Amino acid sequence: MASDYGIVIHGGAGTILKEKMTPEREVQYREKLTASLRTGYDILENGGKALDAVQAAVKVMEDSPLFNAGKGAVFTNDGKNEQDACIMDGRTLNSGAVAGVRQIKNPIDLARAVMDKSEHILLAAEGAEAFAKLHGIEFADADYFYTEERWKQLQAAKYKEKMTQTDYSQLDHSDDKHGTVGAVALDRHGDLAAATSSGGMTNKKFGRLGDSLIVGAGNYANNRTCAVSGTGHGEYFITGVVSYDVSALMEYRGLSVEQAADMVVHEKLGRLGGTGGLIAIDRAGNFAMPFNTPGMYRGHLLKRQAPVVMIFQE
Amino acid sequence: MASDYGIVIHGGAGTILKEKMTPEREVQYREKLTASLRTGYDILENGGKALDAVQAAVKVMEDSPLFNAGKGAVFTNDGKNEQDACIMDGRTLNSGAVAGVRQIKNPIDLARAVMDKSEHILLAAEGAEAFAKLHGIEFADADYFYTEERWKQLQAAKYKEKMTQTDYSQLDHSDDKHGTVGAVALDRHGDLAAATSSGGMTNKKFGRLGDSLIVGAGNYANNRTCAVSGTGHGEYFITGVVSYDVSALMEYRGLSVEQAADMVVHEKLGRLGGTGGLIAIDRAGNFAMPFNTPGMYRGHLLKRQAPVVMIFQE
Fold it and tell me: Which position among A185, A224, B94, B247 has the lowest Cβ density within 10 Å, counted as fewest Cβ atoms?
């Protein structure tokens, strides 16, 4: 299925079951994923950069309450939102990332500004927001990030924690660990890029940071190999250095992007006990979207093909 | 030089020149590096765990004003200290890390507590300190972290910034990017571990985080391959996924630890334009300490050998 340009996206992996999904909600997801694909693809078709395409595609998902990133970010234990994002340019290996930002409307835009306008890669929390102010990045207040569904998820988590007298972080809550959005793209110039944005984990405490902000863990791009964005239980993606591992298996073992992505998700991640998935694309437009959860919101749109959007195992 | 147990440490790489070093200061460094080695080695010799050895060895350097970690951490732009640390167990692949903590006497102890007592890997800033309080980790106030030398370095950096009307982050300050301490060890049970702690960058702003806290960038351990701790210009270590790359070259290409470490530092890091060094040890006790800067504080102490401490190219 090689192509000379195209984009692949995900909107999170987890316990997404057909029997729990209403037809209306499924339509909403499919429409938003398609809109994200088309936004990124239009940039590619017009000769734009993969970097701009992945940023724009992620932004569409950040602006929707459906995904755990941007507008739809989950609440921390103290009723705030703390978001992470990372973007990487496969041509230059430049990257930018932000950790634990609370008031940024589109964390992926701030990650891009860090990449373009700072000599650093990773800026955190208030410091990252001070940088955002200097560079005219759009802020949003608590009202913007409030969604009734996410608030209920926080209350449910707190109730469960209280009833079981157990630190919530010790409870099973595999679902709400899996909401991350991401995009990988190949442009007409032959360049790759990857972008990932995450709203974190419901009821999280202690300033926990996940894999989405970490180059090589949740996000990686390198023209020598591939562009990768991950979604899943972040701790396992950090331990497995998952995104870079796909690249290393291609570079050092000569595996194809499909072989490398499958090995990392179905063998290595599984062996660690980790759940989730990833999307990856190489410079020939070959791509993979493996996951080991019941579902992963995902889609691809390659040169002169129709957009394809999927949610469940199929 | 294979051995069935031993420890290798570094105290930072950078523009460390023999002509700029007083004999008294050189003695201080050599003594402290030797003390760090002996502390870790004693644990190994008594049948203790590599994990405990690297933590204890790093702690000795954190407690000294000579190194940019713990007591000797450099000042941020607002006159505070923000420290990062990471520890990883090569047997289980468990790890713990903290980012941007300000009041923790020994950040490596907190990283260890995150590893042992949390289901998360990475905790940041105030959240990490709240976790520290719950788990009885020792705090230290601003007086403890104040050292005249580091304060002067901050004033000099600010003066330079003012005089040149340039954001300090854009100026050349390659020296103060290179202060990190780390240890890697092999224990009698055949297990590997790595620990890294960093005081960050003089005059840093915007909550910049470096590579030391990132599994696979500045710190990595895996019994299948090796344990690695890096020191240098952190952004390049993040871009190169340097610590995991040593492991990947061993696992996927079959390189020895010396070959893999040399290739990563002398070829790959250099190609990116990055400066620094790393230490690495494998399960046979083979080790490497490559760096591409004028000097790196470093040493090794292997089973029944004398401690060896080095500073310059030699």
Answer: A224
